Amino acid sequence: GAGVSQSPSNKVTEKGKDVELRCDPISGHTALYWYRQSLGQGLEFLIYFQGNSAPDKSGLPSDRFSAERTGGSVSTLTIQRTQQEDSAVYLCASSWYNQPQHFGDGTRLSIL
Amino acid sequence: QKEVEQDPGPLSVPEGAIVSLNCTYSNSAFQYFMWYRQYSRKGPELLMYTYSSGNKEDGRFTAQVDKSSKYISLFIRDSQPSDSATYLCAMRAGAGNNRKLIWGLGTSLAVNP
After folding, report:
1. Residue of A nearest to B87 (CA)
2. Which residue of A62, A76, B96, B105 is surrounded by the most CB atoms within 10 Å?
3. Taking CB atoms and an 8 Å cutoff, what residues of chain A touch B47?
4. Among chain B residues, CA nearest to A6
5. pLDDT category, A1, cuts 50, 70, 90?
6. Residue A5: how many CB atoms within 10 A of its CB?
7. How far is CA B110 from the centre of its chain?
8. How far is A81 from chain B (nearest CA, A)?
9. Cβ neighbours of B42 in A, within 8 Å
10. What is the mean pLDDT of residues B16-31?
């Protein structure tokens, strides 16, 4: 399809394990965003990429969270030493420069 | 106090009703205003996108922005059962690399046949 693709759609892991979440943006979109959605908190911004650079990573909750983008396309969000409070839906969005953001269906992460 | 306030509902209306959804905000730097629709276990889907104050219409949907009151609205005419979803407002400032969207918590809408 032509939309934002995220994988896996669901991930269950044990506390303390590392996880990698992947995002394939809409082809040609220059900007890529990660958000987290949890009950009662709504959507929270994590990080924004323009090309392969991250001008704004102000939303990353701790140094256990990191993200990279390669080739101006695919992005990976990595959470190290997962904690139960990391359980949430992780959403990726992409846009053409300053234009509206379009979202994937997210990765549902559960930490046991 | 959150930067963006949105009544979570739930809102329940009969099919064919006019639905009014709204958000208030506190940051006068916000310039771009969006409404997204989110179905269960899906990502947010962009419905309306407006810049600064004014009205915008797209089919059965009308978005209004009143920057002087820091108040935005979404109206849905002739509501359908397929409109049953959570509606999220989002907004951001316009400057440079400040692209992060600030969100309301969403209003849950049920349209009953």
Report:
1. A42
2. B105
3. none
4. B43
5. low
6. 16
7. 15
8. 26
9. 105
10. 97
The tokens of A57 are what? 């990573």
Cα separation, B71 vs B23, whole angstroms: 6
Q: How many CA atoms lie within 13 A of B107 on its CB side?
A: 24
Residue pairs spanning A and B at CB distance below 8 A: 53
Q: Side chain identity at A111, as an amino acid letter?
A: I
Give pLDDT tens digits for B54-75: 899 999 999 999 999 999 999 9
Note the pLDDT tens digit of each residue in A74-100. Answer: 999 999 999 999 999 999 999 998 899
Give contacts of B104 with chain A, Cβ < 8 Å.
42
